[in-house]
Amino acid sequence: MIKRREIPAAHRANFSKGYWDRVVNRLSYLDVEDVLELSFSPDDSISSMKSAIHTAAKRAGVRLRVVIREPRLFAWIPGKRPVIIRRAKRAPVLCEVCGKEIERPEVGASKQFVCPGKGNKKSRCQKIRRYSLAHHVSIAEARERFERIGEMHKGQRSK
């Protein structure tokens, strides 16, 4: 007999998203009748792992069956299906300075406001927008000032 406060807490095993992706990848190489058995420590609470492995299977585009018999998890792929998760086409973004459409990657990258530069060089649009924000003027005003400064520099270089 023990006190309620002395009951040990369930140890929730913490596995990364990549771990479950690798498990599903390994499952895809198995034959139709094969089952992958994952053994865990008896202290681990593996009932919470079921949703993680199902989510990884959804990312991979496969249907999955999972059976839990503490402290083991059995998983297999009964069939294949098309990928469910499809990213919607991203709406085009127009440059705030020149108005041209900005090419964006399919995934990642924060929202862009101006045309990107090449390599480590800033684009003209990036310089104008940065000038506008730093001097608290509109983009149109910043563009005019930027042009005047550029003309002044050209005149000094030609002398």
Please tell me about this protein's structure.
The protein has helices at residues 17-28, 49-60, 124-135, 139-158; strands at residues 36-39, 65-69, 72-76, 93-94, 101-102. The N and C termini lie far apart (97 Å). The strands form 2 sheets. It has a 3-stranded antiparallel beta sheet with strand order 1-3-2, covered by helices on one side. Strands 4-5 form a two-stranded antiparallel ribbon. 35% of the residues lie in helices and 11% in strands. A hairpin with a 6-residue loop joins strand 4 (93-94) and strand 5 (101-102). Helix 1 crosses helix 2 (49-60) and helix 3 (124-135) crosses helix 4. The longest helix has 20 residues, at 139-158. The radius of gyration is 28 Å and the shape is elongated. The chain is of the alpha+beta class and 159 residues long. The relative contact order is 0.09.
Structural class: alpha+beta
Number of strand segments: 5
Average predicted local confidence, pLDDT: 80
Distance between the first and last residues' Cα: 97 Å
Percent of residues in beta strands? 5-15%
Oligomeric state: single chain
Shape: elongated
The helix/strand series, from N terminus to C terminus, equals: HEHEEEEHH
* Order of neighbouring strands in the sheet with most strands: 1-3-2
